[in-house]
UniProtKB/TrEMBL annotation:
This is Uncharacterized protein. The chain crosses the membrane at residues 6-31. The keyword Transmembrane helix applies. It comes from the Bacteria. It comes from Terriglobus roseus. Keywords: Membrane, Transmembrane, Transmembrane helix.
């Protein structure tokens, strides 16, 4: 019984650590991909339509403050 408990505890701990680690890695890669795309949009001479829409939203939020 003692061996099963230790094995279970190790399995749960490793599973939790790898699960959280993988989730963080995925979130980081999504975040960095969006950040890189935003930098590319800023470097364009003509901005995309969505860039202007989001800029208008930000300015509207700043005006409320």
């Amino acid at each position: 019984m003692y061996g099963f408990a230790i094995s279970t505890l190790i399995g749960v701990a490793l599973g939790f650590m790898f699960g959280v680690g993988c989730a963080l890695a995925v979130m980081y890669s999504i975040y960095m991909g969006g950040y890189r795309e935003a930098l590319r949009d800023m470097a364009l001479s003509t901005k995309p339509k969505r860039w202007h829409e989001e800029l208008a939203k930000v300015k509207k939020m700043d005006a409320k403050k």
